[in-house]
Amino acid sequence: MARKPRKKIQVVTEENQSSEEQTRSESPSNSPLTRTNKPVTRLSTRLSLSRADNNIETIDENSARKNFPKKNTRKNQTANGKTSHISKKLKTTTNTFEEVDESQLNQTDIDYIVPRFPSIQSKSKLRSKNRKASQDDVLPNQNNNDPNQENNQSQSDENLLNITNVTERLEATNKILEQIKTKQKLMESNYNTESAKREQTFKEFKQISEENFQNYERRFSQLQNNQKREEEHKLKTKQISTLEHDLHNEKEARHVLEQDLRKEKEESKKLINQLQQLKQEIPQIENSINSIGDLKQTIKRLEFELRQENENNKKLKRELDKIPTQLDTKQLEILSQLNLYQDLSNLLIQNVKIVSQVEKSFTCILNGRNGSLVFKLTFNGDEYLYEPCINQERDAELLKILPDYLREEISFKKDNSDLFFWRALNFLQKRESD
């Protein structure tokens, strides 16, 4: 005979439904006592109850199959083992309910304890009726029963007794659950009252804190005003002190100016006296000015004469250049003159190169206190060209003090040759103190 799969049916009384709805409506949304939509039961109770249902079905099958004693003996033995296991499980669960303090239970414990299975008492009644009907059907064959069938009958009776014990214990657990639910309601009501008290205290605290905050703002504004006044007072005092300091400085400056005015008055008196003396000396100065004019005229006349003499000398020199000198005595005289000129002027003519009748070049060395300057002079008839011959290693010390105009090429007229020589010699003979 094929066994049909058993459907789990949740049997809940109207009182339990009303109590659950009331607890859900009373408990707040954030309360830890709210239940989830899914039914949650303890795993041990589920397993034990499913096993009990299976045992009941096997008992009904055994009662219906009394004609097959050999096969039913094993099933009865397993049924006895299962019922004993169920009774042990239920004993442990009922003992734990009796030992645990009910005030310590929370919502999760209640969810674990709440039965999510069909009432076994109603099923047992239906199955007992079915068993009686099956017995009535098998009455003709009762006279031929074996002693094994009697044993099966006794075992089925024992199983029924165990089932009745289970139902009694389940009723006891339902009573405990009702007590737990009442305590849950009390806890929720206490929680609601406490939350209301907390809200009230929070409102009072909020009101007090707002008042304190307003007071703090007033004090802060007063302190800010006082601080502004103090800063303004400090600024005013600082301005007054600066003004007093400026006034004191102005007084001192005025005193100094008065002293300066006195000195200037005295100096002006002295100047007036000097002016009077100068006025008296004006005729003498006019006489000296007239004498200066005479001297200027004499200077002009002498300069004119000097120019004429220079021109005459130039003409004579040109004529001398044209005349060839063949006498040795004349050369000796010229050499002696050159030596004398070199000794007097410290100018050494190192080399003479005659390019043409007009153009000549002279390599000269001018010695002095600050060093010796090597340069080249090229004469073109009317002008001289100065070209410095500077060596970086040889003239290192001279370059430190050499002016810029002697480092570059210079062209000057023949009339200004004496001025050039004087400047170069003056530089070389100049002392550091000068």
TrEMBL record:
Residues 1-90, 121-158 are annotated as: Disordered. Residues 140-158 have a biased composition (Low complexity). It comes from the Eukaryota. Residues 338-414 form the Monopolin complex subunit Csm1/Pcs1 C-terminal domain. One of its GO terms (biological process) is meiotic sister chromatid segregation. Keywords: Coiled coil. Residues 163-326 form a coiled coil. One of its GO terms (cellular component) is nucleolus. Residues 13-57, 75-84 have a biased composition (Polar residues). InterPro entries: Csm1/Pcs1, Csm1/Pcs1_C, Csm1/Pcs1_C_sf. GO terms for molecular function: microtubule site clamp. The keyword Coiled coil applies. Transmembrane segments: none annotated. This is Monopolin complex subunit Csm1/Pcs1 C-terminal domain-containing protein. It comes from Diversispora epigaea. The lineage of its organism: Eukaryota, Fungi, Fungi incertae sedis, Mucoromycota, Glomeromycotina.
